[in-house]
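Take a minute with the sequence and fold tokens given here and flag any structure token that looks odd. Thanks in advance.
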Amino acid sequence: MKMKTNTALRTLGFILGSALLGAAQVAQAHQCTVSDAAGTYGHTSTGAIVNPAIGPFTAVGHVTFTESGTLTGGQTTSIAGNLVEESFQGNFTVNPDCTGSAIVYVYHGSTLARTSHLSLVWDSHQNELRAIFLTPGTSISITARKMNEED
């Protein structure tokens, strides 16, 4: 009887171990793509421009990422308490590990105000985005979430 119990326990252990290994492989198999990142996101940017010492930077707006790797959007921005309406466009990449990058051209009306380089990471099945500005002298991060379940 003891031998049957040991054999049954080993068999059960093997089955559970195989199931867990299979689940781990499925979890690792997901790779991020530009297509999955595509959609419209609401975003908030917070931080500061520290060199030169300009002060706090905050923005709230929307951005649309396309399946062709372009982005467009608009935001209301406060730089050291001065409000400005901005539009932007640019290009982005998505790596299989859900990291990426973007170059964003920000406009005040039709005038190019700045060019920003961003480091990106997607999570929550590419429904959420985190980013940081790579521009020297800034300490600004972005959080964004897809606005529609269908995106």
Summary: The CA atoms of residues 11 and 17 lie 10 Å apart. Residues 34-146 form a domain with the Lipocalin fold (CATH 2.40.128.20).
